[in-house]
Amino acid sequence: EIMAGTTWDGNAMSQSDMMEKDTVIVLDDADNVIGSESKRGSHEFTAKQPRGVLHRAFSVFIFDQSTGELLLQKRASTKITFPNVWTNTCCSHPLHGMSPNEVDRPQDVEDGSVVGAKNAAVRKLEHELGIPKEEVPVEGFKFLTRLHYWAADTVTHGPESPWGEHEIDYVLFFTVESKDQLTIEPHPDEVDDVCWVTKQKLLAMFDDKSLLFSPWFRIIAHRWMLSKDGWWDDLAATMTTHRHCDYATIHEFDPPAEHMGGQGAATALFSPITPTQNAVAKQGAYGKIKTHTESKLSQLARLDEVCSAATLLYIQPLKSNLHHAHIKSTFNKDDLAFCDEILCKVSRSFAAVIRQLPPTLLVDVLIFYLVLRALDTIEDDMTAFPDNKTKIDHLLSFHKTALMDPTWSMDGVGEGHEKLLLQQFPKCHSVYAALSQQSRRVIADISHRMATGMAEFVGKDLGQGTLDITQYNRYCHFVAGLVGEGLSRLFAVSGLESPSMAKELHLSDQMGLFLQKTNIIRDYLEDYVDGRAFWPQSVWNKYSTSGDLGYFANQSDPLAQTKSLHCLNELVTDALSLVPDCLAYLAKLRCTEVFRFCAIPQVMAIATLDKCFNNPNVFTGVVKIRKGLSCQLILHTNDAQGVHAAFRHFANSIASKINPNDPNADATLKACDAILEITAEQHSRATKQKRTGLLMGTAAAAAAVAATSSRSSSKNLIPSLALSATAFIGSFWVTHTFQRLVVKGSSSGSLYSPVLRPAAKLMTECQNGDGALEQAQ
After folding, report:
1. CB-count burial class (<10 Å; 0-12, 13-18, 19+) for 88
2. Structural contact between residues 600 and 318, judged by C-beta atoms closer than 8 angstroms
3. With b meaning 16 or more CB within 10 Å and e meaning fewer, what string describes 567-578?
4. HEC secondary structure over 522-549
5. What is the reported pTM?
6. Is residue 570 within 8 Å of residue 539, measured between CB atoms?
7. How does 441-469 read in b/e, with b if 16+ C-beta sit within 10 Å?
8. Which of 15, 93, 405, 611 is 20 to 30 A from 473 via CA?
């Protein structure tokens, strides 16, 4: 199989070799990358896949500017698919794992750059026609539009043809001043003949019934090229303006009647022309991938989580200290208001836990987050800079420009709110400048070191992930571990935590890695589609039979689904190994608000890992925990007991889902057991506290009944006892009903509600004894 960075040599491979070894880019109908397949597997038309597998292609048209002629080729008779047909200059497929990269991202299509398709075109022009790379530079190609078509090769192989094409085809034009400037030495296994034709000559060839033409060439020519004032007549404008460019539409075509059918008896897929419009997306692939969520009915049925959400929103919300007198007197009101507002826009979840920090720390952390978010926006933008060197220069100078120049800003980088953050960065600098010198020193130092790490990865081809666990950890250290270190240092300089926290470099780093690895695991498909993936090749290569990271997205293949879960579970297990250090770090914190700020993301991460573990949905979209569960976790995350209870709950949940046939089963179980061992003491303490509370409550109730009895006369004794019995029976019914609701919720992964827990636990222990309470917890 072709691997990342491998040199592709078409001259060293036969047609059969390329069918087996070339790895094409598998797509959904919106041209999002969802996986990979061998060239053979994608072109097979069978009953199981009547139109093969939808994949990406390109079609090149080279014109002689001096004569207006178009270069055609006749595909070789030895070609497996569509041999002996005349077609455009060159048509083939971008491949996974090529160097230079041939996988275009959605933003590459949006801006018309599609360098991946152009790189593939240069490679195949040299292979098929012997045209040297220097004669067809990438920058000379003009991307016009895309078409989604399919066609069975029934003309060659008969009505039961096992072969065909099903592609989203990128149309590329290229011009030369004169055909004499072009070196053409066709490969005999690829091309039988070539010729230059005028528009009139091509029309005559189409009328010649003895000639065969590729279905995609007929579609493109008749739809856009041969009409009056079409692309060909208007060639100069086609090449120099955007008049004929359509990057948003994917034009859809069924084939001519003679190319219907095949072994899968495929019939019409589209109406004559039903273009698909791509929605404008956020930066990167965010928002373009399906999010797997539970139905509203399912979420509302979890009454404990509904109660938690209501409690957090209306009864016990996280307190904001942003309007404290210290903050008002220290920072510019309008600039701080912008920082708070933009924080909510770029990270609503983080805003709440930052605002509840003590006033002497709150703004320091807020600005720290915004500074790093600005830096991250520069790193993430793959189109704003002319080359990697320019981006690296901006990253490496960020701590000097953005943090030293009060007027510094950046336009045209990022999208949406991130773009606005960079445009209005002087307002962030105003607040940053009012921080203590110690805090500014921490923020500047971490920014510089993070930017240095980001610059190291800018030039790396991450289309197939990081190389190994070492590089995976290194990347996570730069983008998250350093954040943990910076926060620990800010905690220390604020005086809210011990000065020794600034020296907890290892534990701080592990905290950051745990969060980052969780995000990377969850965002498999988003990152892969965006062309910057981080799953380590040394791990996923053990499971991918195609040698491509996109292999796991093909969940219709039972083997791919099994292998994908094994790979996923190995990465989850790797992340779980960080939990002991995370809990050790939390144990060192003494400020309640700082503890909560650090602990809430940690419990959200372990909940997300539980959601991801052994879950095939990771490979078809983004999985997220329920909002009600998030609210529940926030309410419980106030002290070590609540945090340990959450980690214990989700460790048990993960352990219960381990498949004994998974090669990582023993390692995963060992990681879960380590968490259960660490949390056992707090669990035992919590259990004793609840038993003590229960006994005290029972004693108080008995005393109340006795007091009532002693004060009653003989004629009032019976009514008093009757009233007490009625109250007891009523409380039994209500508590038993609540207990059923809670147990129902917990059986599907919910934690117990703080509202329902007392009554539920009381009846559990009264009816079943301590063993039932232990089991319920």
Report:
1. buried
2. no
3. bbbbbbbbbbbb
4. HCHHHHHHHCCCCCCHHHHCCCCCCCCH
5. 0.61
6. yes
7. ebbbebbbbbbebbbebbeebbbbbbbee
8. 611
Taking the alpha carbons of 143, 147, 148, 153 in that order, is the dihedral positive or negative?
Answer: negative
Separation of CA 447 from chain center: 24
- Alpha-carbon distance 94 to 109, whole Å? 14
In this prediction, residues 648-658 reach a mean pLDDT of 97
CA 257 to chain centre: 41
Q: Quote the tokens at residue 161.
A: 């043809």
Give me 523's structure tokens: 């965002």
Say if CB 189 and CB 77 are below 8 A apart: no
- Give SS3 for 750: coil
Q: Is position 522 annotated as part of the catalytic site?
A: yes
Annotated catalytic, 532? Answer: yes
Place of tokens 């979209």: 621
| Cβ atoms of 470 and 448 closer than 8 Å | no
Residue 204 has pLDDT above 80, yes or no: yes
Distance CA 33, CA 25 (A): 7
Question: What amino acid is encoded at 125 in this protein?
Answer: L
Q: Name the packing angle between helices 469-476 and 437-458 (round to 10°).
A: 150
pLDDT of residue 167 exceeding 90: yes
Question: Which one of 522, 596, 626, 648 is the catalytic residue?
Answer: 522
Catalytic residue among 213, 475, 528, 619: 475
* Alpha-carbon span 342 to 363, nearest angstrom: 13
Give the separation between CA 294 and CA 300, rounded to whole angstroms: 10
Termini Cα distance of the chain: 50
The SS3 assignment for 620 reads coil
Question: Is 475 designated active site?
Answer: yes
Q: Picking from 135-139, 209-213, 267-271, 386-390, which range would have the lowest pLDDT averaged per residue?
A: 267-271
What CA–CA distances, in Å, run from 649 to 596, 603, 610, 740, 776? 19, 10, 10, 19, 11
Which residue stretches of 347-436 are H helix? Answer: 348-355, 359-380, 388-404, 416-423, 425-433
Instruction: Give me the mean pLDDT over the 592-600 stretch.
Output: 96
> Band of the pLDDT at 66, cuts 50, 70, 90?
very high
Token code pair at residue 507: 């534990």
Confidence of residue 584 (pLDDT cuts 50, 70, 90): very high
Residues 25, 94: contact at Cβ < 8 Å? yes
d(CA 516, CA 418) in angstroms, rounded, equals 20
Positive or negative torsion for Cα 261, 263, 265, 270: negative
* Inter-helix orientation angle 579-587/592-612, to 10°: 170
| Catalytic residue selected from 75, 355, 532, 626 | 532
Cβ density class 545-559: b for 16+ within 10 Å, e for less: ebbbbbbbbbbebee
CA separation for the pair 616, 626 (Å, rounded): 17
The answer for residues whose C-beta is within 8 angstroms of residue 584's C-beta and 6 or more apart is: 507
